[in-house]
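Subject: Protein record for review, amino acid sequence with backbone structure tokens
Why sent: The fold of this protein is of interest and is recorded here as tokens.
Enclosed: The protein record, placed directly beneath this head.
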Amino acid sequence: MTSEPSGITHGKQEPRTFPAFLTLSTLFGFFLVAFLSVSSGTIASSDGVTVFNVTQALVECGEIAVKGDNVAEGVAGRLYSRYGIGLSLAAIPFYLLGKAMTLFSPAHLDPLVLKGAVSITNAAIGALACILLFLTALRLGYSQSVAFLLTVAFAFSTFFIVYTTKSFLTQPLETLSMLGSIYHLVRSRDDGIPCRPFYAGLFAGVGILTKWFFVINLPILTAYLLITSVRGRRVRDLVFFSIPVGMAFALGLGYNYMRFGSVWQTGYAGILSFSTPLLVGLYGLLLSSGKSLFLYAPVTLLGVASLRPFAKDRKYEMWLFLGLLLVNLLVVSKFYDWSGEGAWGPRYLTLVLPCLILPIGSLLEGGSRTIKRGFIGLMLLGVLVQFGGLSVYYGTYYRTIGEFPYQLERENPLFLYKVRFIPNYSPVWGQFDMAVRNWKAFVHGEKPVFAIEARDERIPLSETDRNKLSETLDLWFAYAYYAGVPLGLCLTGMVSLMGSAVVLGWVAARSCRGCSRPRPRI
């Protein structure tokens, strides 16, 4: 029998603690309620509306042709979404929930009710991603208390929370797919059960159906699987991993054919390019004042510093995380729309945030008080950074400083130059300032007056009313107040949800602190 590859020191070790089902349920409830408490309850981005339109077409008509933005002409001259079908399928249960809710709402508000219900999709997906990160941390040998801290840092101090609660974009589902693949590959290394590579491939397949870009991660995931598998089971593991991935490719190519009459056509023909100079993209994603990874997720600085100590015990996991990070960083840096505009932070790097969060546990386990204080400090700084992104819709800020509607094409080097590269116009500072001002107005009962028009538009407001959005908070309870719900009732709803999140978080933290459980079969 062949031994495992050298350098793997923890391949047979069990993590110190394992959560009971009740602990996992409490954790899921905590993150779900926390995300819901600061969600917008709307779908404002053009990308999100297009994904919603596909969900609506599937449920209402049993077809995939849609109208609106971000579409391309396809079969029979009809218009189709350019995006993958993954998130649209995931949203179907929430759309059905919205249909039930419309039975009790005024007819002219039906579009808003449906979009509000579907916007919950990413909150649930985000909570599941947090559970997977927590479980992966345990598989890497961390205690439950450290795993909980890492998950809290990921959930609340990085830009992941903004994409989980705003805009209905694909980033949360991509991140869930990445974490699911990583978790089951790490488990496969520990127990060698054939279903683990299959589950890892299943999650990777979901990522492919969500966005074709996810395929750039397959070589890294496959290399890790082959290197960490015992020689006698490598072929078996590769086959089990490849089956769901191959099925996802088949479904994705079939979806292409249904839309555009060709398995190779995605709708991006003529607009997809990798024309950005590499150094420009790298500078923008790592060091710029408007899009830096380290600015929008300060705790990742500690993640970079932790890679070396992490490698002492988890050599191959370090190379897995580093490989995933580098391949995404390099490809996105060359992409013509490397900043993912309009967006909060470097949104195309959201799915690799766990690769810089998980290694930090190697510093926290038995680390000095200085390291732990530094971690807490960076985490709190990250929470402060997200305050602006959670409170003010980024499109509103762009409109305020004259960057929206867009004046230039995305390929133009000067496109959103102020937002990307000039510190005075960085959304981190600008949206924080707007958030403070608008929060003061909200708690004092001040509000702009809107007339919601009975039109099925992305933003059902007149141009005059759209200019008033700079005075608003991008939060569900604030929108309820602007729509005429009494302030006291809105504040009660806000405090109730946030208070519930705090209580659930406290219970979850206590259950994780020093808890030791038998290994669960999860």
Q: What stands out?
A: The first strand starts at residue 71 and ends at 73. The beta strands are 71-73, 79-81. Confidence is low (pLDDT under 50) at residues 1-16, 516-521. Residues 394-487 form one domain.
